[in-house]
Amino acid sequence: MTTATTLNRSSRQLIEVFLYLQVLDILTTLIGFSLGNGEASPMVRLLIRWGPLNGLLISKIVAVTVAGVCLMLRRRKLILWINYWYAAVVAWNLYTTLQVLNT
């Protein structure tokens, strides 16, 4: 196995995790919205004025674009940190949803 193949596989795995986290973020955010939770991100809060799903999809287009630029610039480590961030965001969404359900 060559180094290029390993890098490609590693980058592919980073992007797969990134995309899964984006889907989880959309789902957990929409569930939170349906339970009355608000949006913490100021940028997304502005975008959801066009509708919750539309705003979230626009924010995800921006996120995927940033990830694409990171890949093009070979900043794989930055994508790893972005994945950690979105994992924390999904965990926060789940926490706030459970808080609403337990009250």
Structure in words:
The protein is mainly alpha-helical and 103 residues long. The protein has a domain at 38-103. It is built from four helices and no strands. The chain has helices at residues 3-34, 42-47, 52-72, 76-101. Helix 1 packs antiparallel against helix 3 (52-72) and helix 1 runs parallel beside helix 4 (76-101). The termini are far apart.
Structure keywords:
4 helices; single chain; 83% helix; 103 residues
Would you summarize the structure shown here?
With 103 residues, this protein is mainly α. The protein is 83% helix and 0% strand.
What is the secondary structure topology, with strand pairs?
Blueprint: H1 3-34, H2 42-47, H3 52-72, H4 76-101
Order of helices and strands: HHHH
Percentage of residues in helical conformation: over 70%
Enumerate the spans where pLDDT stays under 50 for 5 or more consecutive residues.
none
Number of helices: 4
